[in-house]
Amino acid sequence: MKTKAKLITTTIRTREELETAVGEYAKCEYRKTALKAEMEVRIAAIRAEYEEPKALLDVAAEQIHDDIYNYAQLNPAEFGDKKSIDLLHGTIGFRIGNPKVAWPKGTTDSAAVEFLEKQGLDLFIRVKEEPDKERILAEFANENTMFDQPNLAKLRGAGISVKQDERFFITVKEEEVA
Question: Which of 47, 62, 96 is the last residue of a domain?
Fold first, then answer.
């Protein structure tokens, strides 16, 4: 299957037009930065306006939540065989969470692994296997050495290669545009 070459076109014909185009691009970037800063200031002002009333509602809601929870704890008969009660304005109830492993307080994962190893419980330790990409890159980087490299031949035989992309960039200078 033939692939067609992508036709690249531009309206820029000279170095002077390129300078003008980069200047216009820079103006757009500066304006975007200014608009973003203005937007952040306005968002911060709106947040500040709503912060106090929201904080008061948070406190009130937490107190009511605690009171409802205490009622549910003190009145298990209200639930009967169920874990929840449907009410006019909502549903209250208890949910059983997913089971999770609980280590003794202050135990880190590494300490737990060490304990499991000492107890001969290696079957409860997970080992993550993944390709060592850094080592593969190093192998390809050393391909021009005089040493025989059977590993490199095997990697190439498996279709493994090293690719390096080139990306175009424009860096706008951090100065004011007149």
Answer: 96
- State pTM to two decimals: 0.53
Question: Does residue 178 have a pLDDT over 50?
Answer: no
Whether 166 is in a domain gets the answer no
Domain that holds residue 118: 101-158
> Residue 38 class from Cβ within 10 Å (0-12 exposed, 13-18 middle, 19+ buried)?
exposed
Inform me whether the pLDDT recorded for 130 exceeds 60: yes
CA 121 to chain centre: 34
- What total of structural domains would you count in the chain? 2
pLDDT at 12: 95
Q: Are residues 116 and 92 in the same domain?
A: no
Do residue 70 and residue 141 come from a single domain?
no
Q: What is the 3-state secondary structure (H, E, C) of the chain?
A: CCCCCCCCCCCCCCHHHHHHHHHHHHHHHHHHHHHHHHHHHHHHHHHHHHHHHHHHHHHHHHHHHHHHHHHHHHCHHHCCCCCEEEECCEEEECCCCCCCCCCCCCCCHHHHHHHHHHCCCHHHCCCCCCCCHHHHHHHHHCCCCCCCCHHHHHHHHCCCCCCCCCCCCCCCCCCCCC
Q: Residue 148 above 70 pLDDT? A: no
